[in-house]
Amino acid sequence: MQAEDILDFLSDNPEFLDRHARQFGLSPAHERVIPLAERQLSESKGRYRQLEQNLHLLLGRAEDNDLIQQRQHRLALALIEAHDFDLLLARLPILFDGLFGLERVALRWWGDGVVSSPVSAALRHYAEQLVGPRCGHYVNDELMSWLPAEPALQSFAQVPLRRGEGDTLGLLLLASDDPDRFGADRRTRYLAEMGELITAALLRCRVAG
């Protein structure tokens, strides 16, 4: 078969190439061929949209962090003004409700020769083993008993209260009915700072008292 014969066949049977186009590395006739410049422009727009989404996400996180810092500052001011140990223990849940919208807060203190409420030896040992704040969707039964039964709580933050790198003096428990409020992937830097502020304020009140 000569080249002329092939060309004549294709001329008489144009649908042949359309049916077998991909086999020969061609695009079917019904598909539009996209110029290189148009393809590059489309890819650039896609990258710009992704960058814009990332920027909005970063701005949202920055705003959230700024709000947390403002509330943390107001908490620190309230702690500085406290002078009575028992009064501060009673006031902490009110502060967390007003500043952070957390209605389910409990604190147990067993250090420095003072026990605010009974705490089992097992729980004290557990708190000692915490290397820092722990967030998640579950706590043990004793911790759960610190909080009212209703509403159903979905996430928890456990913040050990320590004097620097020394002994654990207590445990702060925060809870929410929002499963994302204290999810296991939550960063805990602000919670750790909060624990340090509360510990320092309680120790100062103990000395003052």
Please, could you describe this protein's structure?
The protein has 209 residues and is of the alpha+beta class. The protein has a domain of 126 residues: 2-Layer Sandwich (Beta-Lactamase), CATH 3.30.450. It is 53% helix and 12% strand. Strands 1-4-3-2 form a 4-stranded antiparallel beta sheet, with helices on both faces. Strand 3 and strand 4 form a beta hairpin. Helix 3 runs parallel beside helix 7. The longest helix is centred in the N-terminal third of the chain and has 46 residues. The radius of gyration is 32 Å and the shape is elongated. 18% of the residues are buried. The model has no long low-confidence stretch (mean pLDDT 85).
Features:
Beta-Lactamase; 7 helices; single chain; 4-stranded antiparallel β-sheet; 209 residues
Strands of the largest sheet, in order across it?
Answer: 1-4-3-2
What is the CATH architecture assignment of the domain at 83-208?
2-Layer Sandwich
Helix content: 40-55%
With helices defined by DSSP (H or I, 4 residues minimum), what is the helix count? 7
CATH class label of the domain at 83-208: Alpha Beta
Order of helices and strands: HHHHEHEHEEH
User: What fold name stands as the CATH topology of the domain at 83-208?
Assistant: Beta-Lactamase
- Work out the number of β strands: 4
Approximately how much beta-strand content do the residues carry?
Answer: 5-15%
Give me the CATH superfamily of the domain at 83-208.
GAF domain
Major sheet description: 4 strands, antiparallel
**Sheet/helix structural class:** alpha+beta
Give the N-terminus to C-terminus distance in angstroms: 109 Å
Shape: elongated
Determine the mean pLDDT: 85
Low-confidence stretches: none
Radius of gyration: 32 Å
